[in-house]
Amino acid sequence: MTSMKNKVFVIFGGASGMGLLNHLHTSFPADQSSHCFVQTGSVTDESAVEAFLTKTKSHFGKLNGVANYAGVPAMN
Questions:
Q1: Residue 46: its pLDDT value, please?
Q2: Which InterPro entries match (predicted)?
């Protein structure tokens, strides 16, 4: 199995509501808080997603993968 150590991933829709996501981020141990940052937004806004991915690469120096778990309702 490949190690996840020193890897950078973005998780879209990684919580059940933005309030929970912010709570989880603030509950990280202080020595781990620099390993994570949280940004709220909509995955339906392509320019916002691109800006977040650029910010992530700039902050961490790389991006190893993306997981999209955001639920987007189907349009009729």
A1: 92
A2: NAD(P)-bd_dom_sf (IPR036291)
